[in-house]
Write a structure and sequence with these properties.
This protein has 2 domains: about 130 residues, 3-Layer(aba) Sandwich (Rossmann fold), CATH 3.40.50; about 70 residues, no CATH class. Strands 2-3-1-4-5 form a 5-stranded parallel beta sheet, with helices on both faces. Helix 2 packs across helix 5 and helix 4 crosses helix 5. By secondary structure, the protein is an alpha/beta fold. The chain starts with 8 loop residues before the first strand and ends with a helix. It contains 10 helices and 5 strands, in the order E-H-E-H-H-H-H-E-H-E-H-H-H-E-H. The protein binds adenosine-5'-triphosphate (ATP). Adenosine-5'-triphosphate binds next to helix 1, helix 7 and helix 10. Catalyzes the phosphorylation of the 3'-hydroxyl group of dephosphocoenzyme A to form coenzyme A. Pfam families: CoaE (PF01121). It is found in: Cytoplasm. Keywords: ATP-binding, Coenzyme A biosynthesis, Cytoplasm, Kinase, Nucleotide-binding, Transferase.
């Protein structure tokens, strides 16, 4: 049945760790575009009184919930480290809720198109089907490593381990309808954002 409002034209913005997804999404926000960040939603879902808390408690027990009512992230990280099935159990709880909250946010959007920021978009068949275009934020792997080592105070090995759990640069670029090169000077990225904003506005209006 129709909800009375068609879902807005949707861009899926992705990129490897540290590629600059948030930085680029913020530039689109400056043009008034509604940005829906799946990481932020996942965080809210498992914050105190978050929608995922009852299901997390039921699946993992009281130990999974910290005294403040949020998911105990340290406890969960340790469990996932020692029990590979736990990650899938948590994802089975979170993923449908993330999707539901994204659709709620999209239905309330006021901009010509919306941007979903989805770090593992290329890895997820569901998301690829949901969006009208896939935009990849790209930079050399050395730059990703440098940025994340600096920002998160991690070793090169730790950053590489995260990168190995994601698709590689080539696979990600192969899935892209649009590529935003975010290397070096941010003014170069701003110019690409301006051009894509024009293009996507036109596509969304014609949709
Ligand atoms: P994550 O996958 O970890 O969420 P992300 O893809 O959202 O990361 P950002 O958080 O936007 O990436 O950027 C990673 C780091 O690199 C940040 O510290 C940011 O300030 C910096 N950064 C992003 N783009 C540039 C740029 N063009 N020049 C210099 N630094 C940048």
């Amino acid at each position: 049945m129709s909800s009375g409002r068609t879902s807005p034209y949707a861009i899926g913005l992705t990129g490897g760790i540290g590629s600059g997804k948030t930085t680029i999404a913020n530039l689109f926000q400056e043009y008034g575009i509604n940005v829906i960040d799946t990481d932020a939603i996942a965080h809210q879902l498992s914050a105190p009184n978050g929608l995922a808390i009852p299901a997390i408690r039921q699946e993992f027990g009281d130990a999974a919930i910290a005294p403040n009512g949020a998911m105990d992230r340290t406890w969960m990280r340790e469990l996932i480290f020692s029990d590979s099935g736990a990650k899938q159990k948590l994802e089975r709880i979170l993923h449908p809720l993330i999707r539901q909250e994204c659709e709620k946010a999209a239905a309330m959007a006021t901009s010509t198109y919306v941007i979903f920021v989805v770090p593992l978009l290329v890895e997820s068949g569901n998301w690829r089907e949901r969006v009208n275009r896939i935009a990849v934020v790209d930079c050399p792997e050395q730059t990703q490593i440098f940025r994340v080592m600096t920002r998160n105070n991690l070793s090169q090995e730790q950053v590489l381990a995260i990168m190995r759990a994601q698709v590689n640069r080539e696979q990600r670029l192969a899935a892209a309808d649009d590529i935003i090169r975010n290397e070096g000077d941010l003014s170069a990225a701003k110019k690409q954002v301006y051009e894509l904003h024009q293009q996507w506005t036109g596509l969304a209006k014609a949709h």
